[in-house]
Amino acid sequence: MALSVPARPYDFSIEPNKAALVVIDMQRDFIEPGGFGAVLGNDVSRLTAIVPTVARLIGFFRTHGMLVVHTREAHKPDLSDCPPAKRMRGKPGLRIGDEGAMGRILIAGEPGNQILPDLAPVAGEIVIDKPGKGMFWATDLHQTLLERGITQLVFAGVTTEVCVQTSMREANDRGYECLLIEDATESYFPEFKAAAIEMIVAQGGIVGWATPLAALETAFAGAMADG
Ligand code: C5J
Fold first, then answer.
1. Cytoplasm: present as a keyword of the record (predicted)?
2. In the annotation, is 183 catalytic?
3. Using omega within 30 degrees of 0 as the cis cutoff, is the peptide bond preceding 159 cis?
4. Catalytic site residue 193?
5. Termini Cα distance of the chain
């Protein structure tokens, strides 16, 4: 049964048995002081602020028996999946693979690469380590979602204009319908978050739809009340 969720640019028709939540890169590296995000000179407090909303969204999907996917931006310890063009970009105090306050930066298995404890995956959920900004680059996620009959993706996580938007665009090209939960995503730059959302919903939803979490919750609550 499809449920209509008020969204921009128009209502999103969600089919719960074909929809999965994708939580992008809610890892300590980006969100906690001392991680890669902070090393790049960013104020991480904006990202910390959405953690309760992301937790509520994950809980909502679990309550309704819907699939949850978590991603981490993560490289192999030998950095064989980190091109020099990525590692050498800019002039950060520390680079990917260097030893930081929470272990080696953006390296799989290091403390800083773990998903925040409040949002930790549970058994049965999918965890994808991705070496790129987009979640389909060099991962098996598309095949995994196809096998489960998933055709709609609901997005949350950080940062809106980098890994979230890149993943939504990749998903769009692979045929998924994409809904961004706008209060469950954040950027270090508020103007970039706002612009990314406008880009996504422009031109009739050229990348997808956007809505606050409450609209999704209300749509499901209304359907249950209707029996
Ligand atoms: C960044 C991400 N911003 N998860 N990664 O480098 O958006």
1. no
2. no
3. yes
4. no
5. 12
- Using the CB atoms, write b or e for 66-78: b if 16+ within 10 Å: bbbbbbbbbbeee
Pocket perturbation via mutation, ligand 1, pick of 163, 165, 167 by most ligand atoms within 8 A of CB: 163
> Cβ(59)–Cβ(66) under 8 Å?
no
Residue-level pLDDT at 1: 86
Q: 159 CB less than 6 Å from ligand 1?
A: yes
Please report the pLDDT score of residue 121 as a whole number.
Answer: 98
Contact 207, 175 (CB under 8 A): no
The answer, yes or no, to whether any atom of ligand 1 lies below 6 A from the CB of 163, is yes
In the residue annotation, 25 being an active-site residue is answered as yes
Q: How far is the CA of 134 from the centre of ligand 1 (A)?
A: 9
pLDDT digits (tens, 9 = 90+) for 59-99: 999 999 999 999 999 999 999 999 999 999 988 888 999 99
Question: How far away, in angstroms, is 49 Cα from ligand 1 center?
Answer: 17
Position 227 scores a pLDDT of 61
